[in-house]
Structure formats: C-alpha cells, structure tokens
Amino acid sequence: MPSAKEAPPVVALDLQQPADSFDAILCWDLLDYFDLSGARQVLQQLVTLLKPRGFLLAMFNCDQAAVRMAVRYRIAGAEQLEYEPLPLAHSPGRAYENREIQELFERFDLINSCFLPNQMREILVQKRPPRSPRS
C-alpha cells in the first residue's frame, strides 16, 4: 500500500481502440481486482471508448468469503463462452461495499442496479453526453 506521500500506481490498459468506438462495454468481475483508485482509473479509460450515451454493464462479486481467481472471458460464438484462468501477482479480488460502487459510477447515469441470489451485483450505467456550451 502506498504511503501518504506516494501517489497510487497508475493503471494503464492496453486498449488499442479509438475513442467513441463502442455502444456497450461489459466489465464482468474486472473491477473486483483493483482497489478503488485503480478501478476509477480503469473506468476513466473505458469511458473514452464508449460512444456518447453508450452503456457499461459491470458485475461485482459481493460474497466476502468467496475465493476468486482472475479469469479472461471470450465470446467465441453465439452460444459459446470460453474462459482461461489468469495468474495475478496482486490482489485475488475484493468485495466492494455498495457505497463504493455508487461512488465509482457517480459520473454515469444509473439505468439499473440489482443484487442477485448468487451474491453478484449488476450495475447498468450510461455515459452522460457531453455538456453543450451555454450561449
């Protein structure tokens, strides 16, 4: 953990897509592997990829007792989802509190939020359009 004088580490994703490329982005358990500062950095990078009024669906594992490993998912076809475990040198995942999740998405318009029986929280948000300059 960084000291009070140390800046938090910068999270840089290798996103080789132009800005405003996607109508929607799925963050399935992605943010669970970052502290709050890192999750904010990831969201800042992802929001640039969303088209104006684009959607972001985030899923969080809220089970404090669950042992989680990082997994990479790939949509391989209309009815096929592939995954592979990823070795991580850092945190094995964390469970965010509701207030932390609300804070992460305060710059989005909340469309829906639900807590599922399997201890997952789903958040659907929409990118706010740029504000037009006032005349």
Q: What labels describe this entry?
A:
two-stranded antiparallel ribbon, Rossmann fold, alpha+beta, 4-stranded mixed beta sheet, globular
Secondary-structure map:
Elements lengths: L21 E7 L7 H14 E12 L8 E8 L2 E7 L11 H7 L3 E8 L4 E8 L8
Parallel strand pairs: 1-2
Antiparallel strand pairs: 2-6, 3-4, 5-6
Count of beta strands: 6
DSSP strand (E) fraction?
35-45%
Largest sheet, described in full? 4 strands, mixed
Structural class: alpha+beta
| H-E order | EHEEEHEE
Structure description:
The protein has 135 residues and is an alpha+beta fold. It has 2 helices and 6 strands; from the N terminus they run βαβββαββ. The chain has helices at residues 36-49, 98-104, and strands at 22-28, 50-61, 70-77, 80-86, 108-115, 120-127. A 4-stranded mixed β-sheet has the order 1-2-6-5. The protein has a two-stranded antiparallel ribbon with strand order 3-4. The longest helix has 14 residues, at 36-49. The model has no long low-confidence stretch (mean pLDDT 82).
Structure at a glance:
The protein has 135 residues and is an alpha+beta fold.
